[in-house]
Amino acid sequence: PEEGQTYEDYISFLVSRRGRMKPIANAEGLDILLLPIIRSEAEPLKRKGNYSHHLQDWEGPSMEHLVQYTQVFFDRQVRVLPAAQLSVSQPEDVTSSAKKRKTQLRESNKPGAFASKSKFKLYLPQRDGALTAPVPIAGREDPTSDRIQLKVDSLLDELSSYRLSGKHDSHNNNNTKEFCIMAITMIDLFDGPSDLFCAGMAFGGDKVAVFSFKRYHPLIKMHPLYWHNYGYAKTFDGYSYYEDDDQDPKGLSSHPSKISKELAIEFLRRSSKLLTHELGHLYGFDHCIHNRCLMMGTGHLVEDFRAPSNLCGICLRKLQFRTGCDIVERYKKLSDAFRKMGFVKEEVWTLKQHKHLKRIR
């Protein structure tokens, strides 16, 4: 079991005996930078001065709502960097013989198969509008399809170097220092060879993180053992895995279709909780064991989706210490944000907290 972290533990973690913030807190950093990573089927054009965000290719939850919500949650400016692009070299021809296809399918079921750094190249945006030279990223692929996974620590190593280089900081009109760079993507991730997937990971000291929303899609259905074996259902039932008595379900599509407004809200709800939970770790919050809380540790997607969007009183006090936010005003702004996102229960709950605290203030 996890030990948890009290408010006093948190203060000891961030503040030295002389009362100064430790370097790990990055106390001078204010802005949260979001870096979308988008898959490109060809090597991106590296034209100086006119590099666009390419967010028209973003297939994840509403970027606008994610930005607005994160700003309110942490009382910090959130800026979206131009999108990084991942180039994937074309797979080998697997149509030469049925025997070859059968062998490759069998091999692809091995958890750690087909790791490579030569296949995946990442291009990062620079301050002059150009893209960096490509950097290789470790990953794995299923040779019978175009499905890939990127190794999360390989991405984090490059993000750490990128943040330290300062090549990203061209859209800062207030000349404020960034607190962190949070990469978000719809590309699948993994950590170890036996992983089904990995939602993401952070390098807390380097203040970089990367997270994937791919497995948070409301219609995804996945095999519990084979990372590349998944599809998208036509209807929503709230459960993301194949049923125990049906490990080869019929009627799944290989790519998600356009989802309804209600399912888009559910996708946004799941993703916003993941984003704010992991940003909480970058602010030094450990997993919470004190109450039902956004910062609770979870063991699988079912627990992830059941977790609340709000912080418990202890974690909220940590946030107030770290950011100096006004708790009463924050609840009001959160209720407004939830209303805009279509989160009815969350809006009612936060508005209730706001009214109560305003009355006793």
Description of the structure:
This protein is of the alpha/beta class and 361 residues long. It contains nine helices and twelve strands. Strands 1, 2, 3, 4, 5, 6, 7, 8, 9 and 10 form a ten-stranded mixed sheet that branches. A two-stranded antiparallel ribbon has the order 11-12. Mean pLDDT is 88; it is low at 94-102.
| SSE pattern, N- to C-terminal | HEHEEHEEEHEEEEEEHHHHH
| Regions with little confidence, pLDDT below 50 for 5+ residues | 94-102
**Helical amount among residues, as a percent range?**
25-40%
Given the C-alpha coordinates, what overall shape results? globular
The count of helical stretches stands at 9
Kindly provide the radius of gyration, computed on alpha-carbon positions and rounded to a whole number of angstroms: 21 Å
Quick one: biggest sheet? 10 strands, mixed
Percentage beta strand: 15-25%
Based on DSSP secondary structure assignment, what is the total number of beta strands?
Answer: 12
Mean pLDDT: 88
- First-last Cα distance: 37 Å
What structural class do you assign from the helix and strand content? alpha/beta
